[in-house]
Amino acid sequence: MSRFQLTIDSTLSDLFVVSTLIRGVCDYLGADPAQAYWVELGAVEGVTNAIKHAYRGVPGQQVKIEISFVGNQLEVCVLDTGLKMGDEQIERLEKGSRVFHFDPKCLGSVPESGMGLQIIRETMDAADYSSRDGVNCLRLRKTLAEGTTAANRA
Amino acid sequence: MRFEENRTGSILAAKVMDTRVAADVAPKLKAYLAEQITGGTRCIVLDVSDVGFIDSSGLGALVASLKLIGNDGDLVIAGAKATVASMFKLTRMDKVFRMYETTEAAVAALSKEREPAV
């Protein structure tokens, strides 16, 4: 297994570093652009949630991103020590929400926020959330296509 | 965030000069579009051909702007790369925003709509 770690401050201005790392790992593994995009998106949405909700947007805390892969199985964990995700949000992650079930002709029903968890649910092969000893962990998993370099790595 | 602007009559074509529209810059996109709309621009083509990544915050900024422009205006998207277009499709925002392959196509379509009836 290969594993990389990145720790950023709880400030949105550091998001680009997360994107750069995820894209770099996906490029290294030979992931196709579409899959790489979803992995980057899932990680960015997870980190944004940690900053905005776990830490309430207050800088000076740490968000840790761990990326690991075995063969073509990629895993991204977003860890924080802030407020735990609420039961409603956990349920949305586990069971899905109807946030995209809007009437496009009725602009008032189109969401401006609250889309992140559903995006994660629809783009990742698996996503789960746990909280233990004050550390919250959002874990995302994606199986990359058979032809990627990742399939040849131990 | 940086934008490159071109006006054709009452249509503003604004090209996003950044490659990422994520949570860190989405408020700036929203503020820019709000400034244009409240300043009287009712027809905007947002060229995202340089944008390789957009997240839910970026989409949210666009939705807020579309709501602000209201029924008597247009905010359309031009030049979305495949990955960005797939994000619109995933979230069904491709049903909310009119999307064009190029800014030129968008401006032509909007100009035609704005031609006075004969």
Arithmetic mean of pLDDT of chain B: 96
Q: Over the alpha carbons, how many angstroms does the gyration radius of chain B reach?
A: 13 Å
Low-confidence stretches of chain A: 150-154
How much strand of chain B? 15-25%
**Tally of individual helices of chain B:** 4
* Average pLDDT metric of chain A: 92
Order of helices and strands of chain A: EHHEEHHEE
The major sheet of chain B is characterized as: 5 strands, mixed
Biggest sheet strand line-up of chain B? 1-2-4-6-7
Question: In terms of structural class, how would the helical and strand content of chain B be classed?
Answer: alpha/beta
Low-pLDDT stretches of chain B are none
Main sheet summary of chain A: 5 strands, antiparallel
Measured as a percent range, the helix fraction of chain B is: 25-40%
Give me the number of helical elements of chain A: 4
Into which percent range does the helicity of residues of chain A fall? Answer: 25-40%
Describe this structure in words.
Helix content of chain A is 34%, strand content 27%. Chain A is α+β, with helices and mostly antiparallel strands. In chain A, strands 1-2-3-5-4 form a five-stranded antiparallel β-sheet. In chain A, β4 (126-132) and β5 form a beta hairpin. The longest helix of chain A has 22 residues, at 33-54. Chain B is an alpha/beta fold and 118 residues long. The termini of chain B are far apart. Chain B contains four helices and seven strands; from the N terminus they run βββαββαβαβα. In chain B, a hairpin with a 2-residue loop joins β1 (3-8) and β2. The mean pLDDT of chain B is 96. Chains A and B meet through α1, α2 and α4 of A and α2 and α3 of B.
SSE map:
The complex is a heterodimer of chains A (154) and B (118).
Chain A: E1 2-9, H1 15-28, H2 33-54, E2 62-70, E3 73-80, H3 87-95, H4 116-123, E4 126-132, E5 135-143
Antiparallel strand pairs in A: 1-2, 2-3, 3-5, 4-5
Helix pairs in contact in A: 1-2, 2-4, 3-4
Chain B: E1 3-8, E2 11-16, E3 20-21, H1 26-38, E4 43-47, E5 53-54, H2 56-69, E6 74-78, H3 82-90, E7 99-100, H4 103-113
Parallel strand pairs in B: 2-4, 3-5, 4-6, 6-7
Antiparallel strand pairs in B: 1-2
